[in-house]
Amino acid sequence: MSKDNLYLEGFASPEGTKKFRDDALIKGISKSHFKIFDELYLSSIGMGTYLGGLSIKEDLEIEDAVYESIKTGAINVIDTAINYRAMKSEKSIGRALRRLIKDGIITRDEIFISTKNGYITNDGDYPQIDVLEYMQKMYISTGVIKEEEISSGYNVLNPNYIARCVDKSLCNLKLKTLDLVYIHNPLESWNQDINKQEFFEMLYKVFEVYEKFRKENKIRYYGIATWTCFRVNEENKEYLSLEEVNNLAINVGGKDHGFRFIQLPYNLVYSEALFLKNQSIAQEKNLTILEAAKKLGIGVFSSVPLFQGRLLNSKIPEYSENLTNQVLKLVQIIRSTPGILAPLLGQKKIEHVKENMKVAEIPLLSEKQFKSAIKILTKN
Known about the structure:
Blueprint: H1 14-26, E1 34-37, E2 40-43, E3 46-48, H2 56-71, E4 77-79, H3 88-102, E5 112-117, H4 131-140, H5 159-173, E6 178-184, H6 186-190, H7 196-215, E7 219-225, H8 242-253, E8 259-265, H9 272-275, E9 279-281, E10 284-287, H10 289-296, E11 299-303, H11 326-335, E12 342-346, H12 350-356, H13 367-379
């Protein structure tokens, strides 16, 4: 078998994702569970793969959780990063996708796969080689990057490194095409080392790589996955204007550029996306990041919907008579937020998958219900 035959061809398409939606409705999933972005039908919950150790047991748990999440019809959005579990999360997803396709459950064009690059990482299948040794052997000694091109936040924006990371992610996932690649926390990782002008110059070169790879059909879209830069005020050193980033993408790729997504934390503690008016578009001031993204045609995925488990012990007020489960109450409010495509929910245990996916059978809150729920929640 040739190397090419080991890689899955295709990417998420309007026809494929609509078929996934139609099949999901037969399985009892609510029609409103799917949101349309750029003609793609995307589930309003995505699966994240951040947490976990490097054991074979956890490899299998994540593989099975991805398999089961997609099989239920509740999820066709899978999120990862090259550094998550030292590349092992990407590899687990790749195995799960091949099983799903082999078993006739899906085709490649029904599933939206995103990954991230920028952070340094080693390969978890070779745990005896730590991160810094791996970087030295693979990238520094071979002249791909210089040691001083690693930021104090352990991030690299050298375009040679970014290109290698995309190719490595494709290899780990065994895909011909990635639906979405984010540059991972770039400003958060570099703001201590460079000024804003230098940052944009480096980001421009990263976007050049992404646009080149779009032409080669290695990626479909690109974006920025963030932690703080869209959740702080303009005077903060870590602040980023979405309009400036979008204009940068236009300068690199023209009006049909591929910068179409961002990711940021959003939950009942990190609620800035909904309330903080820190963005401007043209002459329009005082927009939230969700409002700005909508005006620019940029999709928003959100991370840490459960605040990494810390919200599970909080008393969440009753805002809907349909929900009693704590996880589902938290996920429902996040996925019903106008402007959010999907929260990314980390899950490894099959019993958690089965429990969490029940929310997909419940319709999203209407805009009126959401506003009412937010009033109840913010009072508490």
